[in-house]
Amino acid sequence: MSSEDIEKIISSDTLRDERVPPGQHVVHDWPELHFDGVPPVDLNTWRLRVFGMVDEEVVWTWDELQSLPHAEVHADWHCVTTWTMLDMRWIGVTSRELLKHVKFRPEAKAVMIHSVDKYTTNLPIEDFLDNDVIIAWAEGGKDLEPGKGGPVRLVVPKLYAWKSAKWLSGIEFIPENVPGYWETRGYHLRGDPWEEERHEKPLG
Ligand SMILES: Nc1nc2c(c(=O)[nH]1)N[C@H]1C(S)=C(S)[C@@H](COP(=O)(O)O)O[C@H]1N2
Ligand SMILES: [Mo]
User: Is the CB of 160 under 6 A from ligand 1?
Assistant: First the structure.
């Protein structure tokens, strides 16, 4: 596939006059954050499984994922620990492209994202289907290193980086937007950096 064939998507947040959300600062070295170690991922046995409230479960192998149309997303990216990276260029398959092959039930309200390291994070379906959401295997022209989620991760540019699950393995359609790993531990259910949705308000 030549680079001209790749659909180019510009995340609308890169068109803002002020691109750095409140309380954030720009970094140039890509930090690496995960709750546990870097899990080994064998491409021969790796699968991406879409399940839950769907008419029929769909499973992709690595080669099958690669055979879908590729896209490049130009986007900024914000971590709740206050770093922001501008002008990321992610290569992969968009969530919309993937879901051309899945019929989810109208009662489904959210997705729970699953990873090889047992990490989970939740997204309302509208956020998952935003046009800049990508299942990415490369950034800046280089394949993702294992620490950065390689071979493949989700990227949700408009929400804090904890929503961008590394070592993606599953997308589960669920009836309610219930909390994932960090959301259960006090992070905001949605995580919009422009609204500073960092943490849920403490009780009491
Ligand atoms: N599978 C998995 N994905 C994950 C995490 C994790 O622990 N496991 N950490 C999240 C958090 S809290 C952040 S801030 C980003 C960091 O991504 P990076 O290491 O590429 O900077 O990954 C997110 N995705
Ligand atoms: Mo994070």
Answer: no
Task: Match 């680079």 to its residue by tokens.
Answer: 3
Burial (CB < 10 A; 0-12, 13-18, 19+), residue 130, is middle
Gyration radius of the chain over CA positions: 16
How far from chain centre, in Å, is Cα 164?
Answer: 3
Assign 139 to helix, strand or coil. Answer: strand
Ligand 1 binding pocket includes 145 (Cβ within 6 Å): no
Tell me how far the alpha carbon of residue 66 lies from the centroid of ligand 1, in angstroms: 23
Q: What is the DSSP letter of 203?
A: P
Q: Is any atom of ligand 1 closer than 6 Å to the C-beta of 167?
A: yes
Cα 103 to averaged position of ligand 2 atoms, centre (Å): 31
Nearest one of 135, 23, 127 to 84, comparing CA atoms: 23
Q: With a 6 A CB cut-off, is 84 part of the ligand 1 pocket? A: no
Confidence of residue 201 (pLDDT cuts 50, 70, 90): confident
Q: What is the distance in A from the centroid of ligand 1 to the CA of 101?
A: 27
pLDDT tens, position by position, 124-149: 999 999 999 999 999 999 999 999 99
Residue 178 to residues 66, 92, 119: CA-CA distances in angstroms?
31, 27, 14
- Closest protein CA for atom 6 of ligand 1: 34
Contact 195, 115 (CB under 8 A): no
Q: Report whether pLDDT(204) > 80.
A: no
